[in-house]
Amino acid sequence: MNKSQSDALVFFGATGDLAYKKIFPALQAMVKRGRLDVPVIGVAKAGWNLEQFRARARDSVEKHGGIDAEAFAKLCGLFRYVDGDYNDPLTFQAIRQELGGAERPAHYLAIPPLLFETVVEQLAKTGCAKSARVVVEKPFGHDLSSAQELNRILHSVFSETEIFRIDHYLGKRPVNNVVIFRFANAFMEPFWNRNYIESVQITMAEDFGVQGRGSFFDQTGAIRDVVQNHLFQVLSNVAMEPPVRTDSETIRDEKVKVLKAIRPLDTNDLVRGQFRGYREEPGVRHDSKVETFAALRLEIDSWRWKDVPFFIRAGKNLPVTCTEVFARFRKPPTVLRDSLLSRNHMRFRISPEMAIAIGATAMSAGEVFEGRHIEIMASRNVCPDEMDAYERVLSDAMAGDPTLFARQDYVEEAWRIVDPALRADTPVYEYEQGSWGPSEVEQRVSPDGGWHTPIMKDDESPNQNTVPC
Question: What's the pTM value of the predicted model, to 2 decimals?
Answer without folding.
Answer: 0.92
